Batch of 2 targets.
Target 1
Amino acid sequence: MALGNQPIIILKEGTKQEKGRDAQLNNIMAARAISDAVKSTLGPKGMDKMLVDSMGNVVITNDGATILKEIDIEHPAAKMIVKVAKSQDEECGDGTTTAVILTGELLKYATELLEQKVHPTVITRGFKLASEKALEVLNQNALVIKKNDKQTLRKIAMTSMSSKGGAGPSKKLLADIVVDATIMIAEEINAKTYVDMDNIQIQKQQGGSIEDSKIVKGIILDKERVHEGMPKQVKNAKIALISAALEVKKTEVDAKIQIRDPTQLQAFLEEEESMLKKMVDKVRNSGANVLISMKGIDDVAQYYFAKYNIFVLNRANNSDMKKLAKATGGKIVANLDDLMSSDLGYAGLVEERKFGEDKLTFVMDCKNPKAVSILLRGGTEHVIDELERGLHDALFVVKIALEDGMMIAGGGATAISISLALRDYASSVGGREQMAIEAFAHALEIVPKTLSENAGLDPINMLIEMRRLHKKGNKNAGINVLNGKVEDMFKNDVIEPLRLGYHEIQTATETSIMILRIDDVIASKNTKSMPGPSGGGGGDYDEY
Ligand code: ADP
Ligand code: MG
């Protein structure tokens, strides 16, 4: 910046600044480095990453979102890529690697256009047009999932889990669990289906084998009964859910009670005991044989509950309480005086069970529960953790498949179908945007290309074969990674929910556009450092 011959310096000395082309290229390089890092994990034949933190904790995963969450990233543009994975994970629970590598690839082809001196605003306009068209084609390709079509939903769950090594041969069992759990808690509101994932609890328990995993029609609490004298098992449980403490209130201010002779002390204690006993009686009179409280329970009250064979858990947390209410149909009552038999929840069985050192309480066999649990078993911590991530992805895709009722073909089929449509579309748009739309079409090929590479197949041959079949009219031709052939993905049961593909394209386009629009990177206050060389000038582009 200069006025006459006098340069005006607006930034503090030593502040790093990157401008124009340099800023852009550095950002793109950083973003692409991230997408390259996760590429090898894509698809059923993808590899896992082992992440080790400074404390020596190890995470072994294939999950894009998890990898990016765990690695320490400094560069601002690279951080934007991490957000792609995060957004994809939050909206769809799956497709994170795809969204990230698609973003990386869009930026790669954008770089080529920048090098040919196409202005970034032209590229971004072309990308926007291309993504709109892509979403249109996606919608056209999508097929309807019939209502509660368990078989299709299972295939969707299996496709999602197939890339998580841990599940292996137990995939079928887990897919059944996932589909049943999701359908059980699905709610119908104004003829629309909603699935609240909060109502599915995953309880991990190390030990046993994956095959021992199961769905529990109810809630599993990481708690044991408060008193040894209570029954370990209650059948036909009528459950009181209480948010208040069962204790004699301590005074707020420090009060002193002066007791002058032993009879007074006795009277005082008796008074306290009688108050506690009254509380216990209120629970007992409601007909409850199980009590779950969010707060503490006095020892004396515990003693009486045990005497009356009432099973009691204390200090249940808020979210477990809400799930218990949904699973058992009970009502959380704040004041014991209000407790009525109609507030009680029902479970066919409440039981404390021992797993190794841990004791868990199962509140199960509920009638028509609107919250359920999945008990996940597995040999080691790492296996269970990766299994849980796979299960999370599968639950989420089944949820959105159930909510939207639309599906698309996986295995790169949809990407190729869109890519071919975009090439036709590009020529109808013309101008320089055409180049950007073609670049977009090219970028989409990264999905089947990477799937092939990771499966040890020749990506070029696969692409050629896919294009050939698509042009012949098979819109669902994708890669069968098992036999190395290009086949109909619906026949191969490689199916994904429409929303997954939709969001992958949306978030990849938005983020690549955002990165392309940056032509100035200034280290602002509180920013530690900014990698990459600084300097360079703007105005590198042809004016459009
Ligand atoms: P993401 O994080 O994007 O979900 P994944 O590692 O889960 O990454 O891989 C997903 C990709 O693998 C999708 O393109 C999906 O269609 C594909 N895929 C899953 N199962 C198969 C299969 N059996 N054959 C071919 N492709 C598959
Ligand atoms: Mg996946």
Target 2
Amino acid sequence: MSLSVKHLLGIKELNVQDIEKIFRTADNFKQVLQRPIKKVPSLRDTTIANVFFENSTRTRISFELAEKRLSADTINFSASGSSVSKGETLVDTVNNILAMKVDMVVMRHSASGAPWFLARHIDASIVNAGDGTNEHPTQALLDAYSIREQLGTLSGKRIAIIGDIMHSRVALSNIFCLQKLGAEIMVAGPPTLIPKHIRDQGVKISYDVRKALEWAEVANVLRIQLERQSKPLFSTLREYALYYGINKSMLDGLQKEMIIMHPGPINRGVELSSDAADSGQSIILEQVQNGVAVRMAVLYLLSGKAESVEAG
Ligand code: CP
């Protein structure tokens, strides 16, 4: 019942059996989350540190809730207000937390590769909650899980990933995960936000969002990450919204059912209008809901306690 990896650093390291095992376990935990008592004792004697060196709303709350639903003890660390400002290193910070008998570490960091670096220096299992512009594996798992829930399978499905591909860890993890599960991927957005190396990942590329929507069954729309742009890559947000933003009238014009996703946080009126984000085609809040079950599954399977699924 365990995974082929000790850590969840990136989707790249997972095999298809790992992903399917996570989904099956998440199916069980999703049933637990529908019950009046939404809790199992699976990680009763496990302590998990949520170590966030970068801001987060969804991922942090989702992991904390997943840990509580599994009966784990949790501690939360934020870089702001910590001794990081006094010059303490990442390894020293985490080793001090682990010295207090912590079993697993969930980490978000602004530096790409930080979880791989940490994995070489500590014994505890690490779950990457997003590293720089590299990977966000649990987001990709919950996205793929949510598509599977809607369409039954990923195999042969056409998924468009639209927006700021350049700065998005969600894009790369989604590409790895969806391709492993047999989906076809197109990335779309302005040429300045689509890195040349993405072609090597075997994806289709379009600079025309409307064409991408016509091709796809699912559109995963990404946030414009202005905070990661050292110099402007398009003239104004208004212009971005005009040429690359998705709104309800565009979706209605397609005259087909399609699923709209977004990992959050949304820049409403920029990459996605409110009438599209809140439409019946949007599964954005289902993604958030599924995130708890998927993260429960990841923590449980990495904990080494997955002898039997107690959710049944
Ligand atoms: N989707 C996501 O990673 O959101 P947060 O940055 O709020 O965690």
